[in-house]
Amino acid sequence: MKQSINDKTIKELEDIFLEKGYQKFRAKQVFRQIHVNKVNDFSQMTDLSKDMRESLSNEFEIDKVSLLKTFESKIDSTKKYLFELKDGNIIEAVFMDYKDRKTICISSQVGCRMGCTFCASTKNGLERHMTASELIEEVYTLERLNGDINNIVIMGIGEPLDNYKNITKFLEIITDENGRNLSHRSITLSTSGLTPKIYDLADSGLDINLAVSLHYATDEKRKKYMPVAKKYDIKGLIKATDYYLDKTKRRVSFEYVVIDGVNNLDSDIDNLKKLLMGKNIHINLIPLNPIEEFKHGKTTNKIINDFKEKLTRNGLNATVRYSMGQDIDASCGQLRNNYAR
User: Fold this and answer.
1) pLDDT tens digits, 295-316
2) DSSP letters for 260-284
3) Hey, CA dihedral for 114, 118, 122, 125, is it positive or negative?
4) Cβ atoms of 242 and 279 closer than 8 Å
5) Is the pTM of this model over 0.90?
6) Helical pair 132-146 and 164-174, crossing angle rounded to 10 deg
7) Annotated active-site residue in 105, 116, 119, 332
8) What ranges in the chain are assigned the alpha helix state H?
9) Is 92 a catalytic residue?
């Protein structure tokens, strides 16, 4: 079985190449071809001899991410993609052009096992983790399609911290100054709240931006709609985010999908104040995108703006994140599920 090569650090490549009798400096050449030039075919690495290219292609591979289908919004510049992995599994990714910056939203798993009731990604469970090699190639495939991007949001299908080993390896490679050299500040990871892994990420030195899917201000509500809350309570989650801020100096964002009559009550505002008042945080309010399996309807602009005004009047830092590409199946997982059907 061939070994992936694009998920190796320069040091790892040097050790592998020396063991196989290649010159040490070749490792940096190959690393640059993959992560600067975004080459995913050994035959295109023309600074290597033909014999070495053939030898590498016999021993190593780059996990391909193939474009299956593109969906382009007619109301803005958003593009949503279905990608096929080499085993036939399908993932989603999104490209958003904000004029001053280009952002992509990537998947981290094939499916998801978190079971949040309002999310389409988790309805068929977890198929498998994506490898670090696939994560890297997912980004580079999007860049080949749209040019260099400025920001990565790991917020597509999957729970990134449930795939911790591959995610941290991906982050180490994508931020390497000898390669793609993406700033840590340009990467945001979204988690449903795997508390122990937040501590691990804080201690990893990968001081990326952290977004926590809070959505409900009490354990009672969270447990009803988010099974992860049965294992990790809000008090422990907030303590972990405090630790993350202290360790990384990165302000934590709390994502809050507004569901009318469920989590936008006056009591929710009071509970959010108790949880978050005085902390260096940001509340990101998101309209609910309905799915068949969740009975609540789409959140109107009036409902979400009224809630935002109440939060800000109560001293909490909150803004509304309006969904781009609303004329395309909007929620993570919807495109994949519909295609599978």
Assistant:
1) 788 889 999 999 999 999 999 9
2) TTTS-SHHHHHHHHHHHTTSSEEEE
3) positive
4) yes
5) yes
6) 50
7) 332
8) 10-19, 25-35, 50-59, 132-146, 164-174, 195-203, 219-225, 234-248, 266-276, 301-313, 334-340
9) yes
Which is the catalytic residue, given 92, 138, 159, 255? 92
Q: Contact at 8 Å (CB) between 319 and 284?
A: yes
Q: Provide the 3-class DSSP secondary structure of residue 325.
A: coil
DSSP designation for 175:
T
The position carrying tokens 């193939």 is 66
Q: pLDDT of 206-232, one tens digit each?
A: 999 999 999 999 999 999 999 999 999
- Do residues 208 and 187 lie in contact, with contact meaning Cβ atoms separated by under 8 Å? yes
* 332 among known catalytic residues: yes
Residue 32 structure tokens: 């640059």
Cα 41 off chain centre by? 26
Q: At what angle do helices 301-313 and 266-276 cross, to 10 degrees?
A: 50
285 within 8 A of 308, measured Cβ to Cβ: yes
